[in-house]
Amino acid sequence: MKRAAVAMMCALAGCTAGGIAPSPSGGGASVAQITKIDVSLAAFPLQSTSAGPALGFSPEVTTVTVGSGVQFVNVDNTSHTSTSIADAATFPATTPFSASAIAPSATSSLSSGWSSGTLQAGATSQVILVDRAGTYLYGCFFHYSGNMRGVIVAQ
Ligand SMILES: [Cu+2]
Prior knowledge:
Blueprint: H1 2-13, E1 34-39, E2 47-49, E3 52-54, E4 57-58, E5 61-64, E6 69-74, E7 83-85, E8 128-129, E9 134-139, E10 149-154
Parallel strand pairs: 1-6, 5-10
Antiparallel strand pairs: 1-4, 2-3, 6-8, 7-9, 9-10
The site of copper (II) ion has 6 residues, from loops.
């Protein structure tokens, strides 16, 4: 019965195989398009980006459309975060994060900033709303000093 109801909602809303997108944290609107960024310190090696060297996310530089959403999927066997770095064009030399990064942020958008909180192995983050064009840097709270960092370009 529950499955049938979900299938019917998908038929009405035009969902793709990914199912119904959850609403972004702190907002009521649904996001039609979600870009998934895989997270793994082990799998994704060092690359050169406009903000400096980065590793641990795939893609390291992700281009997304304003109005869509982003989710991080931990495909590693250890814990990570995706935590935004405010107002920086290049990765700061030392960690920009505080311990609050280990809890999911109350609001999650490119303009307000975000943290996924600690993502255990296999976990998927909240939806981060792509609400404003620009270039946004982020990193992992646990492995920032090991260059675990990434870039989102919203246009
Ligand atoms: Cu990490």
